[in-house]
Amino acid sequence: MATRIIELEKPRLKNPIFIExxxxxxxxxRISAGYLAEQLKAKKFAExxxxxxxxxxxxxxSSAVHMLKNEFYYWKAQNKKQRxxxxxxxxxxxxxxxxxxxxxxxxxxxxxxFGVKEIFTLAGLSVGEQTTGLKVVGAVSxxxxxxxxxxxxxDFNTGAKVxxxxxxxxxxxxxxxxxxxKGVCLLGETVGFSVIPDPKSAEVVLKVLTKxxxxxxxTSKLEKKIKEMEDFIKKIKTMxxxxxxxxxxxxxxxxxxxxxxxxx
Amino acid sequence: MATRIIELEKPRLKNPIFIExxxxxxxxxRISAGYLAEQLKAKKFAExxxxxxxxxxxxxxSSAVHMLKNEFYYWKAQNKKQRxxxxxxxxxxxxxxxxxxxxxxxxxxxxxxFGVKEIFTLAGLSVGEQTTGLKVVGAVSxxxxxxxxxxxxxDFNTGAKVxxxxxxxxxxxxxxxxxxxKGVCLLGETVGFSVIPDPKSAEVVLKVLTKxxxxxxxTSKLEKKIKEMEDFIKKIKTMxxxxxxxxxxxxxxxxxxxxxxxxx
Amino acid sequence: MATRIIELEKPRLKNPIFIExxxxxxxxxRISAGYLAEQLKAKKFAExxxxxxxxxxxxxxSSAVHMLKNEFYYWKAQNKKQRxxxxxxxxxxxxxxxxxxxxxxxxxxxxxxFGVKEIFTLAGLSVGEQTTGLKVVGAVSxxxxxxxxxxxxxDFNTGAKVxxxxxxxxxxxxxxxxxxxKGVCLLGETVGFSVIPDPKSAEVVLKVLTKxxxxxxxTSKLEKKIKEMEDFIKKIKTMxxxxxxxxxxxxxxxxxxxxxxxxx
Amino acid sequence: MATRIIELEKPRLKNPIFIExxxxxxxxxRISAGYLAEQLKAKKFAExxxxxxxxxxxxxxSSAVHMLKNEFYYWKAQNKKQRxxxxxxxxxxxxxxxxxxxxxxxxxxxxxxFGVKEIFTLAGLSVGEQTTGLKVVGAVSxxxxxxxxxxxxxDFNTGAKVxxxxxxxxxxxxxxxxxxxKGVCLLGETVGFSVIPDPKSAEVVLKVLTKxxxxxxxTSKLEKKIKEMEDFIKKIKTMxxxxxxxxxxxxxxxxxxxxxxxxx
Lengths: 264, 264, 264, 264
Fold this sequence. Notes:
Four copies of one chain form a homotetramer. By secondary structure, the first copy, chain A, is an alpha/beta fold. Chain A has a single domain, classed as Rossmann fold (3-Layer(aba) Sandwich). Chain A is built from six helices and twelve strands. In chain A, the strands form two sheets. An eight-stranded mixed sheet of chain A has the order 1-3-6-7-2-8-11-9, with helices on both faces. Chains in contact: A-B, A-C, A-D, B-C, B-D, C-D. β4 of chain A pairs antiparallel with β10 of chain B, so a sheet runs across the interface.
């Protein structure tokens, strides 16, 4: 199956900006992008399913199964200072290295059709214990973007603090170059126990992002929202961890030494 | 090779229901579906082989090799209250995450040709020690199915008890949605030592399923049947465990430190 | 790249029998088939290279690199009691489960073009310590073959002794069925420390095989031959083991805790 | 995505020689080829990106992301004793066995278009502690090349010292044969702690290579150059090691035993 996009609607968008927020450190990207989509009442128009996600369905509170997927939402600009948006959120990233490249190229090929030229990826940056004054650290696909975005209070002294940006947040920028897209990664500093969502860090990221986008959203419900999501996010993580552990460890060893001989 | 279907016969079926029972917890699904196919004298019409099964053949009692495969059976309705059935049983599920998606999409593409619109997947639900009063717990691909099937004594308070449904039983429901198929997963509660087949749980699942299908089968031979199968099922599991252990651990380390230098 | 056959010559063969002997337990198959090809002065006509072999080249005694591969040889019948032969030998089998299926289907597709209908696979059967009176144990793709080959002193009480036949020796029989080929696996009993080639077991297998094929070869040089091969075979095994160990274990952990933060 | 070449320019080259230097033991190949390309002011004309590289981008000193890639450079002969050159350098080799074959075949297919018939691969040879008098050891794709290159002071008593040549340096020679290319691997002896670049070994390799190519370069800046590179090379290695460790070990185990049941 590899990776597939299921299109539910074909929106007409004008020069849209693409925003990505998938699970990762502190779930900062996932929370920020999800909250933004919800506050804007953005509309879902496509889904990604992939054989690089875990091979299971989730159950959450009801008896209906939930398939792991990523989801595209769109939002249309309300005034001339704003731009149309495509927002990508989701339950999971690839569980194997190769899948990351495949899924991200699928995304880039798809958004290219809508004329996307600018990308914002949202992620968390684990900074150990120093929790006072969380900042947004920025990485760019092109050095000239620094000038353009420095005024929004983003810390661009990035090379000294950041080694790599893994998965979608990094590769969308790196691979985006081959699709004529310029990108900025907004990294919200977080204490970084990766399972625990960090609303503070998400709020800081959202403040910078909405300023750039000329959008006003109410961040006061963010913490409450996260409370609701936390259970579900934790469930996915627990199940993934358990499933990966099962894949790596032979389940039950044969107890009695059976009289079976092995041939090769 | 990936995954391939070998068709032995092309049955003409009318609006058939698809039933899946592959190996898993307590082998509940495998036993239930296998016993149903046998009691109904359902006829095999296709096989699935896949490079996502273990790369070996089995020997069992005779000197003839047994290739790991999944098998499709069909059964034609005997009266107007019944429906034609396609039953899938087999020796194995995918041994890697990606293979699950590939095999399940191969199955969905194939059964779509016969006009399948409804799916029942059968599986076990490990419930630790509380063995009194085993129930059938249900998961659905669509919340409206709950109303339809509640009367059959299925426990649909599923979200509280079930985290994920892994492999075919879950993904057939999740992916089936993209093929316009609605599905119910019938989970037989079992004490859940995954190697040991649980006839009690299979019987409970079969009772619910046959009531839904308006079919009468004699479940009295179930325990005897399982006794016969147990050996074979155990052999597959043992071999898989051993093979996986061998894949994960380098077989024999070089004893003497040889004078060979490594280059990269 | 997957798996590829490089054809050096297109021999015209009449109803040929296919014989496989690749590395495995005691290298019994590899030694038997290799010695047979050499004694018959069989001619190489094709090579298989595959991305499922280890990604390295070997050096052995000279400074010329040796690419891991499998090799096809042919031999033409000398009299009416004999049959043309295709013999497959090689340095390696697939290092991952999926690759086995791919390589074996590549082989089956290729030999089908020469009209192959009968297969003999050669392998070792590890029997622990009981070394007196090594036998050849047989497995078949079709129960009716037992009758035909019982007279050659093959032990067909196989199910009791053999759990699985892994890799090429097993899958050529299992998958061969889908290519209208019937097959017998000749398993030479061996004490089974898989790195150490077992000439005794190879000799017993060769005696049964040549009787079936109506061929006379001199097995007196077998032990000397193996002495020569041993070094090379050991080198491959050592390198594979080392390489697999390297793949499974991160090479060098960063010593000083560097000030690099991880982002996802 | 697999593996892709992005061509920036289509140089016209006459009978070019191909030189490869990718990361490996002591980074000897990477350093030698990189320094050569820089000293010759060779021009970049193509890039390779691959889903077999790590799925992350790097940050180094600036806030701009760096995508893992391999890079092709060309240089045109300045006089009749010289030959046009294609030089391949890069950040990474494949992280999985299969990827090596895929990437190397992509390279061979690409350079074949420029008429390449001769290959030099550069690598390090770990020789433990004996550091006095580092030599260049040679491996060849064809025994007759030994005669041609022996005069350049290469030690061709290779089989006794070298077990395998892993990755690009080895497979370009082995697979090159199927593309009608002849190749020599120049192995610089090094003490071989693979993370630490070895300028001494690179210098010895460069001296032999430039003599063969009739090129004069100033090796005096080599050590300084390596000092500059060291940080970046170390960063890649550290990140790869960390990432691989993360892939192999489930990140955080669920602490409290949650009331979630597992189904299969």
